[in-house]
Specification:
- Helix content is 67%, strand content 9%.
- The protein is of the alpha+beta class.
- Among the domains are: 133 residues, P-loop containing nucleotide triphosphate hydrolases (Rossmann fold, 3-Layer(aba) Sandwich), CATH 3.40.50.300; 153 residues, no CATH class.
- The strands form five sheets. It has a six-stranded antiparallel β-sheet with strand order 5-4-7-8-9-10. Strands 6-3-2-1-11 form a five-stranded antiparallel β-sheet, covered by helices on one side. Strands 16-18-19-20-21 form a five-stranded mixed β-sheet, sandwiched between helices.
- The protein is elongated.
- The two termini are 115 Å apart.
């Protein structure tokens, strides 16, 4: 929120910062202020004292932004935007409002840590919290609106920044350019502000302003009026004048001292005149001695020159022979390089054909296995009965069922008639019994006769016993029939459960076989893929090995650099080729090589002394010229300011040891890496002081452009390619070993899957055979169980009828026995007219007929049901057998099609494999021939190099002798030159004149 405030609103416990040149006043209030606690007020000119300029003379410049990075509580980058007028920043105590005022004072050059409410200057750097690590530096940027030119700089905005590092280092910058603290103070002092040209009113300091003495107020007024700036300049000028006066006094003392030393020097001049005569005699003697020494040295030099011719001739012959051998070596190396692609091609061809052969071998094995698995088996037909025969049996059973149904209907009619007759007979018997009962039982019994009654009693007793025997027989038969039915039903249920398990097992076996077949196909595919991967890995590794050999051969060059690298024992300071000591980002090798130029093939030496020894060695061996880079360990070189206009600094793409950092930075200073030629050309037009290098190695500099296609690679690029190829070879070898390991595991999986698939197929065939046998057994057991249950029911009905008849016979027997006993005790009675026996016989016969009819009906119904069930079972069995045969035919046809396909693939694979075998043999012979040729060339190259080493050793001995003679002659010439120079310097006489006038042939005067 923003609000206006008057000077009276500034209370004790507040902070205020006032800029005289601007119209802004900063007020940070604490909890003890008169207004709401935690408010930061940015106030204009109400605090301006009476010495302020008039309102119409005030400048319009003001603070625009204040950016804090890592300063005190501002861990992240924070930017405050200021506008003319009043701005209030609200926040609780401890939220960092006072840090804003401290940042203003600090960025304008405050050097006192206590003025910034700290113990030391490093306290202004963010020290970290529990959730954030401390920072390594603090930076504050202050942007000032200079649209009216109040600051003496040609910018409408001026940004002053100050950076403090935790190690104590500090940097100042004006508009991004580094400068000194004095430059900042001078810039701000000319505009009326600066380190001491603003007022910071902190906690407890407001009283010092309000209660100031006239002298203190004068100081404030002078500071506000800009007098302090001129006073500081006056004091600085006075200090310079005092220093100049001290120097003038010292000069006067030196002049007086020299005047006192002139008299002793005059006396010394007189002594010197007397010494002239003596020196003349001494000069003549010394000249004659020098002339004699010079003559002797010249004679000795002439004798040594005469011996040089023979050594030079021998050296020339040895060098010619060595040059011839090196020419032959270069031709042999060129032939090896030319044959390297042929060798790589032959190896790749052989590896490719070998991999193809392995693939076709696997295909032949797979096709053979499929053909073997798809061969028709010895017993493929279903083992069940003929479905037509089963249908015929079912039709016969249906006809029997129809006939039995008709018999059942007839039996039902017979049963109805028997029931009607039974009812009539029982009704007649009941009426007769009622009639006889009404008569005199005694008379009637007596008329029957004792003999007949006894016979009836015996007959009734006999029938009763017969009925009892029949009931026992029927009970035993029922028990036996039930046992047979239960046994058959138990076996039926057991086999039915087994059939259910077999059905589930059949489904499981089908799924198991399909899964096993799919697993086998996946294993075959995995083996094939791994074989291909192995072949590709072998080809890739062979290609990388050949490329690495070619790159190593390219690195082993025969030039001055290689001579230095091979002579590390004689020159211990040689560290190696520069290309081997630099690590360059991928894609920047060509750019770095182009920017370095000839230095890319340079040799790194340790210091100037090692460089001198290297140059002397090259001259001694006449090995040519080489570029040397001095690893002086000077640290980082000159670094460009800021980021490049486009691309990145090329030096950022190079990593090296600290000892090379400085020289690499100097070589790549102002070099910028860009993507293409067009970007480089456009950037170079607008920045001619920079050098732009494309990734392809094209260079665009001021007035100079280097570019085009590269005919050969530099040593730097070859070294980078060698390192990359080495890494790729390690990765390819690792991948090949892993592919081989995976191939062994996949082959084991393939073998296991093949065995499992074959076992699943065998188990499926066995299950089909078991299903057919169990189905037939189920039919037999079902028929047996139904027959046993029908027989048990029929016997049960017969036993029920027999028990009813037995009970009736028991009642008749009891009645007859009572009647017999009564008849024996009473007089005989005429039984005439008693028809109960007739009616009873008729009723018993009717009941027996009804029982027989009911048994016949029940037996017929059971037979109809049994025949229907059997017919239905036969119909289902015929349908199942037909479906099984259809399935078998479809399976047989499918297997036949698959067999034909597998046989065709097997035949084609064998033909292709035979041709590939011939191609592999031819490729192997070609590879062997190329390798033999390469071995012959390598052997020739080894012999040539051995001869070169021997001849080079002999030449080195000659060169050493020549060198020693040259050194001796050089030393001799040096002594002659020194003697001539000494004669010329000491006596002003040249060597020829010295011998002519003072030589051994001249007489002494």
């Amino acid at each position: 929120m923003a609000k206006k405030a008057s000077p009276a609103g500034i209370a004790e416990g507040s902070f205020a910062a006032r800029n005289l040149w601007a119209d802004q006043v900063f007020l940070a209030r604490g909890a003890s202020g008169g207004e709401r606690a935690g408010a930061l007020k940015i106030r204009c000119d109400e605090l301006v004292l009476s010495a302020f300029p008039a309102p119409d003379q005030r400048r319009n410049v003001h603070l625009k932004t204040l950016t804090l990075k890592g300063f005190k509580s501002f861990a992240s980058s924070t930017t405050l935007h200021f506008e003319p007028g009043v701005t209030c920043v609200v926040g609780p105590n401890g939220s960092g409002k006072s840090n804003v005022v401290d940042a203003l004072a600090w960025v304008m050059g405050e050097q006192g840590a206590k003025s910034l409410r700290g113990g030391k200057m490093e306290d202004v750097i963010f020290s970290g919290t529990s959730g954030r690590a401390p920072l390594g530096r603090a930076e504050v940027q202050l942007t000032i609106d200079n649209s009216d030119g109040a600051l003496p700089i040609e910018y409408t905005e001026v940004t002053i920044s100050r950076t403090l590092f935790r190690n104590g280092g500090s940097e100042y910058a004006i508009n991004g350019e580094q400068c000194r603290l004095l430059d900042v103070q001078e810039l701000l002092s000319d505009s009326g502000i600066g380190r001491e040209m603003h007022v910071i009113v902190g906690q407890g300091q407001l009283d010092s302003i309000l209660q100031a003495t006239p002298e203190d107020r004068r100081g404030f007024i002078e500071e506000a009026a800009g007098v302090l700036k001129h006073r500081k300049r006056k004091e600085k000028a006075l200090r310079k004048l005092d220093a100049m006066g001290a120097n003038l006094t010292r000069l006067t003392d030196l002049t007086n001292e020299l005047r006192r030393q002139l008299k002793p020097l005059g006396r010394q001049a007189e002594v010197a005149r007397r010494a002239v005569v003596i020196q003349s005699d001494v000069r003549d003697a010394r000249l004659r001695l020098m002339a004699d020494d010079l003559t002797a040295l010249r004679n000795l030099l002439a004798a040594e020159v005469a011996d040089e011719t023979a050594l030079r001739e021998r050296q020339a012959k040895a060098e010619a022979a060595l040059a011839e051998l090196r020419t032959q070596e270069a031709e042999a190396e060129a032939a090896v390089l030319q044959e390297a692609p042929h060798l790589v091609a032959a190896q790749e061809t052989w590896f490719g054909l070998s991999g193809l052969r392995e693939r076709f071998n696997g295909l032949v094995q797979l096709a053979t296995e499929r053909v073997r698995n798809l061969q028709p088996e010895a017993i493929e037909e279903s083992s069940g009965r003929d479905p037509e025969q089963i249908d015929a049996e079912a039709r016969l059973l249906r006809e029997q069922e129809f006939e039995l149904s008709r018999e059942v209907e007839a039996a039902r009619e017979v049963l109805a008639a028997a029931e009607a007759r039974r009812l009539d007979a029982e009704q007649a018997l009941l009426l007769e019994e009622q009639r006889v009962t009404a008569a005199d039982r005694a008379a009637a019994d007596r008329r029957e006769g004792l003999a007949k009654l006894r016979g009836q009693v015996d007959a009734a007793r006999s029938r009763t016993q017969t009925r009892s025997g029949e009931i026992e027989r029927l009970t035993a038969s029922i028990i036996e029939a039930k046992e047979r039915g239960e046994h058959a039903q138990g076996e039926f249920h057991a086999i039915e459960i087994q059939v259910a398990g077999l059905n589930q097992g059949e489904v499981g076996l089908d799924q198991e076989y399909e899964q096993a077949l799919a697993a086998l196909q996946r294993a075959d595919s995995a083996v094939e893929q791994l074989r291909t991967a192995e072949s590709v890995g072998e080809r890739e590794r062979a290609a990388l090995s050949a490329r690495l050999d070619a790159l190593e051969l390219g690195l082993s060059r025969k030039d001055a650099a290689s001579v230095l690298i091979a002579s590390t024992e004689r020159v211990p300071g040689v560290l190696g080729p520069l290309a081997g000591l630099l690590q360059i980002d991928h894609g920047a090798q060509a750019a770095v090589a182009a920017a370095l130029g000839d230095v890319a093939d340079a040799v790194v030496v340790r210091g100037v002394d090692a460089a001198v020894q290297s140059v002397v060695l090259l001259k001694e061996q006449d090995a040519g010229r080489a570029a040397l880079v001095l690893a002086d360990g000077a640290g980082a070189g000159p670094a460009p300011v800021g980021a490049p206009p486009v691309g990145t600094w090329l030096r950022a793409s190079v990593r090296c040891d600290d000892s090379l950092r400085a020289v690499v930075d100097r070589l790549l200073v102002n070099c910028v890496l860009v993507s293409d030629v067009r970007t480089a050309a456009d950037a170079q037009r607008s920045h001619p002081d920079l050098v732009f290098v494309t990734q392809a190695g094209d260079i665009f500099a001021a007035g100079v452009v280097h570019g085009g296609s590269a005919d050969t690679q530099s040593l730097l690029e070859v070294q980078a390619a060698h390192d990359q190829t080495t890494r790729d070879l390690v990765v390819a070898t690792h991948d090949l070993e892993r592919a081989r390991f995976d191939l062994v595991a996949a082959r084991n999986v393939q073998s296991t899957a093949s065995d499992f698939a074959e076992g699943a197929l065998n188990r499926l065939h066995e299950s089909d055979a078991r299903m057919a046998a169990v189905a037939e057994q189920l039919g037999q057991l079902g028929q047996a169980a139904r027959s046993a249950h029908a027989e048990a029911e029929r016997l049960t009905l017969a036993r029920t009828a027999a028990e009813a008849a037995h009970e009736l016979d028991q009642q008749n027997l009891s009645t007859m026995e009572v009647r017999l006993a009564g008849a024996e005790n009473e007089p005989a009675v005429d039984p005439a007219g008693d028809k109960r026996e007739i009616f009873a016989g008729q009723a018993a016969g009717s009941r027996q007929d009804e029982v027989d009819a009911r048994l016949a009906l029940r037996t017929g119904e059971e037979r109809v049901g049994a025949v229907g069930v059997r017919a239905e079972q036969l119909e289902r069995a015929a349908g199942a057998e037909r479906q099984a045969r259809v399935n078998a035919i479809a399976r047989r046809e499918r297997r036949a099609v698959e067999l034909v396909t597998a046989q065709a693939i097997l035949a084609a694979s064998r033909i292709a494999l035979s041709r590939i075998e011939g191609s592999v043999a031819q490729a192997g012979r070609d590879r062997t021939a190329v390798e033999r040729a390469k071995a012959d060339r390598d052997q020739l190259l080894t012999k040539l190099r051995s001869s070169i080493r021997e001849l080079a050793g002999e030449l080195d001995l000659l060169k050493d002798s020549v060198h020693r003679d040259e050194v001796a002659r050089a030393e001799q010439r040096l002594r002659i030159e020194q003697l001539e120079e000494k004669a010329l310097e000491d006596f002003g006489v040249e060597g020829d004149v010295l011998i002519a006038e003072y030589g051994p042939l001249q007489l002494v005067p």
